[in-house]
Write a structure and sequence with these properties.
The complex is a heterodimer of chains A (about 80) and B (about 350). Chain A is of the alpha/beta class. In chain A, about 45% of the residues lie in helices and about 15% in strands. In chain A, helix 2 (about 20-25) links the parallel strand 1 and strand 2. The radius of gyration of chain A is 13 Å and the shape is globular. A six-stranded mixed β-sheet of chain B has the order 2-3-1-4-5-6, sandwiched between helices. Chain B has a four-stranded mixed β-sheet with strand order 9-11-7-12, covered by helices on one side. In chain B, strand 4, helix 4 and strand 5 (about 115-120) form a beta-alpha-beta unit. In chain B, helix 3 crosses helix 4. The chains are: A alpha/beta (about 80), B alpha/beta (about 350). Strand 1 (about 10-15) of chain A pairs parallel with strand 12 of chain B.
Chain lengths: ~80, ~350
Amino acid sequence: MVKEIERAGIIVVHMCTVVPISLTVGANRIVPTIAIPYPLGNPELEPKEEKALRRKLVENALEALKTEVEGQKVFE
Amino acid sequence: MSKKKVVHYINQFFAGIGGEEKADVKPEIREGVVGPGMALKGTIKEDAEIVATIICGDSYFNENIEEAKTEIIEMVRKYDPDLFIAGPAFNAGRYGVACGAIAKAVNDELGIPVLTGMYPENPGADMFKKNIYIVETGNSAAAMRKAIPAMSSLALKLLKGEEIGSPEEDNYIARGIRRNYFAEERGATRAVNMLIKKLKGEDFVTEYPMPDFDRVDPNDAIKDLSKSKIALVTSGGIVPKGNPDKIESSSASKYGKYDISGFSDLTEADHETAHGGYDPVYANLDPDRVLPVDVLRDMENEGVIGELHKYFYSTVGNGTSVANSKKYAAEIAKELKADCIDAVILTST
């Protein structure tokens, strides 16, 4: 899906937990996330902390969108 | 001849421990056969014995790849086996990645032959087909009956040190290895024959398939996020409560487009996941954990981003064919273009 959106000419960032799959699929901008059932959260945290964690991950994704890349890049 | 020793690797589901809610179990080892090992045992019993079965949760493996590999290699080492078999994983993505990764690691570290089985569209197949033998299977466990004999036959060849045939002969996914052999006809004759077939519109088999590098170049970065319109897309199956379009929990036959203009936070009361390939408890309690609407709405209000697109698009990535995923994404992208979207955040589980 990531690749087809990129192919259509829209910049896309892939947020996912299993980065090797994303690399194999051919995503260019990749942001690693927390866990498979909750990529953008962590149920062990307090709701406020959890949202802060999510915000950090999304900020990372926005940073990826602002960054020129040549080929694939994982934004840790 | 004494019987050769085999160690088998399976996931929590095939071990009967549980489904997605148990996908985080750590590696454990049991003496003898468990689950699909029973069928494998029956077909190789003349020559080999499955001495132990290693079980690991798919999520645990994929979220802790290095630790899991180290732990499992130590378990395998203790049994000093002659062959390591993983799976078959069919089209289960995380299971396929686990089978491929652990089989390759065992081969690299212990130097014994390894074997797994999966459906060619499993992401694990593309990742590891160059390194190991992956027997081609159907896309679901319904294909177990066909997968087992194919895996056993290749397993016995590997155990006996027999020469492995071509991918077609031994039913494995082509590894991209070229081997010299004596052809009946010289190259020029074969080339002309192939050309004649091609001109006649008949089927012919190339002797040198071109590698299929389907890569898309990255698009240019966003200059000013505060003026950008950003859309959310997910393969994690987030849908309005009640799943109005009835998107299937696996092998999705459709995607959905949903209005979030009235939402600043997704909750248990209004959204849920339709995905059947991961434990849905966490996403159902707070769908923002998969689709970060709350955070992006805040950022929109703060002016960090220009606008969060009115609609999000969602499908279930679980076992959905590559052809369908491509089709859905191409349609989604077309609509996003028409809506002047500058960037997409795509989340996957």
